[in-house]
């Protein structure tokens, strides 16, 4: 299990570091480095998930949209939205907001949005809810695995302790949904919508600047 955890973090952070160093050496814009790092992480997630002997270990989930479990999907989606709203309500605004377009060109903004709102959340679901959760369930059982995988997930959201706390809560909702038979694709869809709300607002409107 420790090897699986190390593999996930090496892929999450190592590939992004490699993309950053490559971009610096090539003189590319930071948005290109971000996009490349996210794309490499997504590809690694697919490879790890495909390498598993039983890709549905510990869960009845498949890469499909919700069918009979549609009610559970709605509950999970609303819970994640509720956590986002709660975070906005209780966490003080951080600094002075200004739209990204004041500092970056339109192409860079599009690349950042593709990275953070689409590619990154899908990659995280593959790595954490898809690969690592299944491995930890097999080793530890449900309570410890579901909590543990999301404590690890929160380390990638270390910008503040409140961000990490809400990352644990957000991840737990998705982990419980998946463990109950929910679709990995549905988890990714919820994560994409969540990140899209956060980053579109962060770059253009400034209402959710706490996250």
UniProtKB/TrEMBL annotation:
<keyword id="KW-1133">Transmembrane helix</keyword>
<dbReference type="GO" id="GO:0080120">
    <property type="term" value="P:CAAX-box protein maturation"/>
</dbReference>
<dbReference type="Pfam" id="PF02517">
    <property type="entry name" value="Rce1-like"/>
</dbReference>
<keyword id="KW-0472">Membrane</keyword>
<feature type="transmembrane region" description="Helical">
    <location>
        <begin position="135"/>
        <end position="153"/>
    </location>
</feature>
<keyword id="KW-0812">Transmembrane</keyword>
<feature type="transmembrane region" description="Helical">
    <location>
        <begin position="70"/>
        <end position="93"/>
    </location>
</feature>
<protein>
    <recommendedName>
        <fullName>CAAX prenyl protease 2/Lysostaphin resistance protein A-like domain-containing protein</fullName>
    </recommendedName>
</protein>
<feature type="domain" description="CAAX prenyl protease 2/Lysostaphin resistance protein A-like">
    <location>
        <begin position="109"/>
        <end position="196"/>
    </location>
</feature>
<dbReference type="InterPro" id="IPR003675">
    <property type="entry name" value="Rce1/LyrA-like_dom"/>
</dbReference>
<dbReference type="GO" id="GO:0004175">
    <property type="term" value="F:endopeptidase activity"/>
</dbReference>
<feature type="transmembrane region" description="Helical">
    <location>
        <begin position="159"/>
        <end position="177"/>
    </location>
</feature>
<feature type="transmembrane region" description="Helical">
    <location>
        <begin position="105"/>
        <end position="123"/>
    </location>
</feature>
<feature type="transmembrane region" description="Helical">
    <location>
        <begin position="28"/>
        <end position="49"/>
    </location>
</feature>
């Amino acid at each position: 299990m420790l090897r699986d955890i190390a593999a996930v973090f090496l892929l999450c952070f190592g590939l992004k570091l490699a993309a950053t160093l490559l971009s610096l050496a090539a003189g590319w814009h930071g948005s290109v480095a971000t996009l490349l790092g996210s794309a490499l992480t997504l590809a690694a997630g697919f490879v790890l998930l495909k390498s598993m002997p039983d890709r549905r270990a510990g869960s009845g989930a498949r890469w499909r949209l919700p069918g009979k479990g549609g009610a559970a999907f709605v509950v999970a989606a609303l819970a994640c939205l509720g956590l986002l709203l709660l975070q906005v309500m209780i966490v003080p605004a951080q600094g002075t907001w200004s739209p990204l377009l004041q500092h970056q060109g339109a192409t860079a903004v599009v690349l950042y949005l593709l990275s953070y709102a689409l590619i990154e959340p899908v990659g995280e679901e593959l790595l954490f809810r898809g690969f690592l959760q299944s491995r930890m369930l097999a080793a530890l059982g449900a309570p410890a695995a579901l909590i543990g995988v999301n404590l690890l997930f929160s380390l990638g959201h270390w910008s503040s302790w409140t961000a990490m706390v809400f990352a644990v809560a957000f991840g737990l909702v998705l982990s419980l949904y998946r463990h109950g038979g929910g679709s990995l694709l549905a988890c990714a869809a919820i994560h994409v919508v969540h990140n899209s709300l956060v980053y579109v607002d962060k770059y253009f409107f400034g209402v959710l600047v706490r996250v």
